[in-house]
Design goal:
two-stranded antiparallel ribbon; 284 residues; eight-stranded mixed sheet
């Protein structure tokens, strides 16, 4: 029986080749394949354990036509997490409520004009007893437990729910092909039409959010986006769930993508209970 199996495998001409995976010795290296394709491989401080890194194309902004400059690895814990729609919704509600102040105002019986004297004697007329015509029981009277102006709806979402909101939204954008990585934000001109044609040519959607690692953007892209209300530039420290949901396409620079990975991975693998204790609010 053993010889029969050996002969069968020989007739199939199966050849087993070892698979070799290139691991860089530095934090970021560029590996060139025989087809002259640059693949940027990274060695993270917290490498992925169960899933493979995601690869995205590095695009350019110096021409309207899209050019593939190479491949860039993204950490799966940040850009390939399971999208939690409930956590994304909680982040959305939190961001819309923490800046909302309600100015609805009602007057109590002490603030309504009139009602200074007792409308009729307490006894003798057979009528119900009342002490003021501005009682909440009367038409035109005060309001009990009504809204008072200047009421804030601020509350703090737990820290790790905010982190998971970012990873869920980034992962959803990448899965829907709405996340793009560019080498830099240098444009050859400051004409808004150039940027509008570029967005239309690449099908980036009507609204675009551009993220850079610094709050000082190049002059040409700053001038070009001034007259395009649907295109906004934001530094990496201002990235939030609400803005990513508001825009159809998310464009990251290489430096911004690495910075986002670095900060989120640090918080995902650190115990921050003691650091958060002094910032906790009593929400009783």
């Amino acid at each position: 029986m053993k010889s029969v199996l050996i002969n069968a495998f020989k007739r199939l001409n199966l050849s087993i080749r070892p698979q070799i995976k290139v691991i860089s010795s530095t934090y970021s290296t560029a590996v060139t394949t025989p087809n002259t394709l640059s693949v940027t491989q990274k060695e993270w401080k917290f490498p992925p354990v169960y899933t493979k890194p995601r690869e995205v194309w590095i695009e350019n902004l110096d021409t309207v036509e899209e050019k593939k400059l190479g491949l860039f690895e993204l950490h799966p814990s940040v850009y390939a997490a399971m999208p939690r729609i409930d956590i994304i919704h909680r982040n959305f509600v939190w961001q819309t409520k923490y800046r909302w102040v309600s100015w609805a105002h009602t007057k109590t019986r002490a603030e309504v004009r009139g009602g200074g004297k007792k409308p009729w004697p307490q006894k003798g007329l057979g009528r119900a007893r009342h002490g003021s015509i501005r009682s909440p029981l009367w038409r035109g009277g005060g309001v009990v437990h009504g809204p008072r102006s200047g009421k804030t709806h601020f509350f703090m979402l737990p820290f790790h729910l905010r982190i998971q909101g970012l990873t869920s939204t980034l992962s959803a954008k990448l899965a829907q092909d709405d996340l793009h990585v560019v080498n830099n934000l240098e444009l050859p001109t400051d004409e808004p039409n150039y940027l509008a044609d570029l967005i239309e040519n690449r099908n980036w959607g009507p609204s675009v959010l551009i993220i850079d690692d610094t709050d000082i953007a190049p002059r040409n892209i700053t001038v070009a986006t001034d007259s395009l209300p649907h295109v906004n530039i934001m530094p990496v420290y201002g990235l939030n769930v609400y803005s990513m949901l508001k825009h159809d396409t998310l464009v990251l620079t290489l430096a911004a993508a690495e910075r986002i990975e670095e900060r989120i991975l640090h918080h995902l693998h650190s115990i921050t209970t003691e650091q958060q204790r002094e910032f906790k609010l009593s929400q009783v």
